[in-house]
Structure formats: structure tokens, C-alpha cells
Fold:
Amino acid sequence: MHPFCHLLFQLFRSKHPSTLLVAIVMFLYMLVALSDNQFTFLYLMGAPFCWTPEEVGVYNFVGSFLLSLASLALTLITAWSMRVKSPTVLTKSRLPESRHLSNSSVALLVDDEMVEQSQRSAEDLEPAHLQSWYHVIWSRTRMLTYVSVAFLLITLSKLIIGFAFRLSQPFCNAAVYVALVLLFTRAAVVPTLKSFISSLHSAENQNRLFVIVGIAEYGGLLVGEPSLPAFYAFTVSVFPGAAYLFCAVLSAIALVVVLTLLMSVVKELVSLKNTADSPATLSH
Structure:
């Protein structure tokens, strides 16, 4: 079997499916957040909006400007708030059984499962190591919380713009801009998900890991770019906002997946706090 195919097989049979779930979320995000740009201008030029090309240009400018500001702000906030030391518990010297797996082409999940098992043995960790690992789990919790809020607002945005055509002027135009403002949180969804998935695996596996992430991203684009405009073309005469409502459903599915991951991380965080020797060890 080809090493990469073997790697994918290891991914699907893993007992810790966070990598697979994040890849699914990435695929859905590309479908929801980027593929509707091709027909949005057609939607806004139709009734009851009847926008001119100049008004559509202003709309695109406002959206791009908000995303740029949000990306800059969120990047600075993330860089400032996530300054934590790498946990020494992840070193290979503490995992003699996995020493020979680091050079294997299928080490992505085999090695990382052993690392995960070692990390979860909180009773055997020194206080300094326990504190470092707590900060890692706490950072994962914050990342997934942000992504959950982002997908919630994306879902609301798609619902608002999907039903905006049923409103009269000037309320329909106001609804479109409200939906646009809610999309500012999508600016850092992909970097945050990549940071989360990177924290799950050892350094040796990052290249192969992001190959899987890249496949999920471009897979979403390849599916969404032709299918959503076609869906809009078939439904525009019956219900003009149907394509946006479909995107809202996909975004809600992604939200459920992210919340599932968040619950798992929160349980791990609570378990780690319960096994701590003293509350002072886990101060953050």
C-alpha cells in the first residue's frame, strides 16, 4: 500500500478522530464561506434590492475592509494571548516505545496516539509539566470556542441574507449589511483550525498533516465553486435565497462538529484539573 494511502487509513481508523473532524470542518467552511461570492452580485442586482454595479462594488469593498481589519486584530490578539511554553512532556526521550516510529511514513497517528496516552497520564507528571500541559489544553479550548462563535455568526449571516429578499426597501438593504458585518469572524477560522490541529501532533508529522488539511480545503473549493452557483440557478426563480439557506445548513453542521470537539477538550481540561496535586499548579 502507498505510504500516503496507509496514512489516510490510519487517520480513519484512529481512536482519536479530531484530525478527521477538523478536516471535515475545513471542507464545510470552504463550501460555506467562499463559494457563494460568484452569485451574490446577481442576487443583489435582482428584486427587491435592485442594486447598481456601483453599489455592489461598495458592498464588496466594505466586506473586504472588515475582513482585513478583523484578520489583523485577531492575529495580534492570538499572538499575544497564546504565548505558552512547549510542554516538555512531549519529548521523545519520555516515550521510548515510540522512538522507532518517528521515522515511519505512517507515524502520524500511531506515534501521536502514544504521545496522547502519555499526556493523559497526569498523575505521573511533575507539577511544571502538568502546568504546561494545562496551558496547551486551555489554548485548545479558546481556539475551539472562537471557531464555534464564528460558525454561529456565519450561520446567522446566511439565514439573514437568505430571507432578506422577502423584506421591502430599505429593510432588505439593511439586512444585507447586517449579514455582512456578522461575517467578520470568519477572518481567522482557517488559521485557528490549523493551529488547533497542529497542536495535536508531533513536529515530525506536520508536513503530512497539512497535506490532509490542504486536500480538505481544495476539495471544498472544487465541490463548492461549480455546485453552489448551479444550485442558485435552479432555485432563483422559486426561492432566491435558497442557496444561502443551504449554506446556513452546512454551517450549522460544521458548528455541531466543532462543539463536539469543544466538549471533548473541555472534558480533558476538567479531568486534568481534577488530577492536579494543588490548585496553584494550574493557575493561568
